Amino acid sequence: MKRNVLLAIGVVLLLGVTGSWAQESIIDNVMTACEVEVDTYCSQVTPGEGRLLACFYAFEDKLSGRCQYAIYEGAAQLEQFAAAVTHVASECMDDLEKFCAQVELGEGRVGTCLLEHKAEVSPGCSQAMDDTGLELADDQPE
Q1: Cβ 106 vs Cβ 10: under 8 Å
Q2: Are 117 and 96 in contact (CB under 8 A)?
Q3: Each residue of 82-95: pLDDT tens digit?
Q4: Which of 12, 67, 81, 126 has the greatest CB tally within 10 Å of its CB?
Q5: Buried b (16+ CB within 10 A) or exposed e, 95-130
Q6: What is the pTM (predicted TM-score) of this model?
Q7: Which of 121, 110, 117, 122 is nearest to 15 (CA)?
Q8: Please, what's the b/e burial string for 49-66 (b: 16 or more CB within 10 A of its CB; e: otherwise)?
Protein backbone atom coordinates (compact mmCIF):
# COMPACT_ATOMS: atom_id res chain seq x y z
CA MET A 1 0.00 0.00 0.00
CA LYS A 2 2.74 2.45 0.99
CA ARG A 3 4.56 1.62 -2.24
CA ASN A 4 1.49 2.42 -4.36
CA VAL A 5 1.01 5.75 -2.61
CA LEU A 6 4.67 6.63 -3.06
CA LEU A 7 4.51 5.62 -6.72
CA ALA A 8 1.53 7.92 -7.27
CA ILE A 9 3.29 10.75 -5.45
CA GLY A 10 6.43 10.13 -7.47
CA VAL A 11 4.54 10.37 -10.74
CA VAL A 12 2.96 13.67 -9.74
CA LEU A 13 6.14 15.15 -8.33
CA LEU A 14 8.25 14.30 -11.33
CA LEU A 15 6.02 16.55 -13.40
CA GLY A 16 8.29 19.41 -12.31
CA VAL A 17 10.98 18.07 -14.63
CA THR A 18 10.80 17.62 -18.35
CA GLY A 19 11.92 15.26 -21.06
CA SER A 20 14.31 16.52 -23.72
CA TRP A 21 11.63 15.60 -26.25
CA ALA A 22 9.27 18.24 -24.85
CA GLN A 23 10.69 21.22 -26.72
CA GLU A 24 7.75 23.57 -26.84
CA SER A 25 4.96 24.22 -24.42
CA ILE A 26 1.82 22.29 -25.31
CA ILE A 27 -0.31 25.18 -24.12
CA ASP A 28 1.58 27.68 -26.25
CA ASN A 29 1.14 25.45 -29.31
CA VAL A 30 -2.62 25.15 -28.77
CA MET A 31 -3.04 28.85 -28.04
CA THR A 32 -1.15 29.78 -31.21
CA ALA A 33 -3.03 27.30 -33.41
CA CYS A 34 -6.39 28.23 -31.88
CA GLU A 35 -5.89 31.99 -31.67
CA VAL A 36 -8.81 32.74 -34.02
CA GLU A 37 -11.11 30.39 -32.09
CA VAL A 38 -10.12 31.89 -28.74
CA ASP A 39 -10.77 35.41 -30.04
CA THR A 40 -14.02 34.46 -31.78
CA TYR A 41 -15.68 32.02 -29.36
CA CYS A 42 -13.83 32.03 -26.06
CA SER A 43 -12.58 35.57 -25.47
CA GLN A 44 -14.78 35.98 -22.38
CA VAL A 45 -13.55 32.72 -20.80
CA THR A 46 -11.13 33.02 -17.90
CA PRO A 47 -8.28 30.58 -18.63
CA GLY A 48 -7.56 27.86 -16.10
CA GLU A 49 -9.14 24.76 -14.60
CA GLY A 50 -10.14 23.44 -18.04
CA ARG A 51 -12.50 26.31 -18.86
CA LEU A 52 -10.88 27.10 -22.22
CA LEU A 53 -10.92 23.43 -23.19
CA ALA A 54 -14.62 23.32 -22.24
CA CYS A 55 -15.20 26.30 -24.51
CA PHE A 56 -13.42 24.50 -27.36
CA TYR A 57 -15.64 21.51 -26.70
CA ALA A 58 -18.76 23.68 -26.85
CA PHE A 59 -17.69 25.02 -30.25
CA GLU A 60 -16.02 21.85 -31.55
CA ASP A 61 -18.00 21.94 -34.79
CA LYS A 62 -16.57 25.40 -35.51
CA LEU A 63 -12.88 24.72 -34.76
CA SER A 64 -10.45 24.94 -37.64
CA GLY A 65 -8.48 21.87 -38.66
CA ARG A 66 -5.32 23.56 -37.38
CA CYS A 67 -6.84 24.10 -33.95
CA GLN A 68 -8.29 20.58 -33.80
CA TYR A 69 -4.92 19.09 -34.70
CA ALA A 70 -3.09 21.18 -32.07
CA ILE A 71 -5.51 19.96 -29.38
CA TYR A 72 -5.13 16.35 -30.55
CA GLU A 73 -1.33 16.64 -30.71
CA GLY A 74 -1.25 18.23 -27.25
CA ALA A 75 -3.26 15.36 -25.80
CA ALA A 76 -0.91 12.83 -27.43
CA GLN A 77 2.14 14.63 -26.02
CA LEU A 78 0.61 14.69 -22.54
CA GLU A 79 -0.12 10.97 -22.77
CA GLN A 80 3.47 10.26 -23.85
CA PHE A 81 4.83 12.43 -21.04
CA ALA A 82 2.63 10.73 -18.45
CA ALA A 83 3.83 7.31 -19.63
CA ALA A 84 7.46 8.43 -19.39
CA VAL A 85 6.98 9.85 -15.89
CA THR A 86 5.18 6.70 -14.77
CA HIS A 87 8.03 4.56 -16.12
CA VAL A 88 10.66 6.62 -14.27
CA ALA A 89 8.65 6.66 -11.03
CA SER A 90 8.16 2.92 -11.18
CA GLU A 91 11.82 2.16 -11.92
CA CYS A 92 13.07 4.69 -9.37
CA MET A 93 10.75 3.96 -6.44
CA ASP A 94 13.49 2.63 -4.16
CA ASP A 95 15.79 5.50 -5.13
CA LEU A 96 13.03 8.04 -4.47
CA GLU A 97 12.57 6.55 -1.01
CA LYS A 98 16.33 6.40 -0.36
CA PHE A 99 17.42 9.82 -1.60
CA CYS A 100 14.33 12.03 -1.67
CA ALA A 101 11.98 10.90 1.11
CA GLN A 102 12.67 14.01 3.18
CA VAL A 103 12.31 16.48 0.30
CA GLU A 104 9.38 18.90 0.58
CA LEU A 105 6.68 18.04 -1.94
CA GLY A 106 5.79 20.35 -4.79
CA GLU A 107 7.32 22.49 -7.50
CA GLY A 108 9.35 19.60 -8.92
CA ARG A 109 11.63 19.35 -5.87
CA VAL A 110 11.42 15.54 -5.66
CA GLY A 111 12.16 15.15 -9.37
CA THR A 112 15.06 17.57 -9.05
CA CYS A 113 16.34 15.57 -6.06
CA LEU A 114 16.26 12.37 -8.07
CA LEU A 115 18.18 14.00 -10.91
CA GLU A 116 20.75 15.42 -8.47
CA HIS A 117 21.42 11.84 -7.29
CA LYS A 118 21.54 10.34 -10.79
CA ALA A 119 25.11 9.11 -10.29
CA GLU A 120 24.00 7.21 -7.16
CA VAL A 121 20.69 5.70 -8.27
CA SER A 122 20.17 2.11 -9.34
CA PRO A 123 21.08 1.13 -12.90
CA GLY A 124 17.40 0.59 -13.74
CA CYS A 125 16.47 4.04 -12.50
CA SER A 126 19.35 5.67 -14.35
CA GLN A 127 18.39 3.82 -17.52
CA ALA A 128 14.76 4.91 -17.18
CA MET A 129 15.86 8.53 -16.84
CA ASP A 130 18.05 8.16 -19.93
CA ASP A 131 15.32 6.33 -21.87
CA THR A 132 12.84 9.13 -21.28
CA GLY A 133 15.28 12.01 -21.62
CA LEU A 134 14.43 13.19 -18.13
CA GLU A 135 16.31 16.36 -17.27
CA LEU A 136 15.97 19.45 -15.17
CA ALA A 137 13.39 21.94 -16.40
CA ASP A 138 14.75 25.29 -17.54
CA ASP A 139 13.46 27.04 -14.43
CA GLN A 140 14.86 24.46 -11.98
CA PRO A 141 18.21 25.08 -10.27
CA GLU A 142 21.02 22.70 -11.13
Answers
A1: no
A2: no
A3: 888 788 888 999 99
A4: 67
A5: bbeebbeebeeeebebbbbbbebbeebeeebbebbe
A6: 0.64
A7: 110
A8: eeebbebbeeeeeebeee
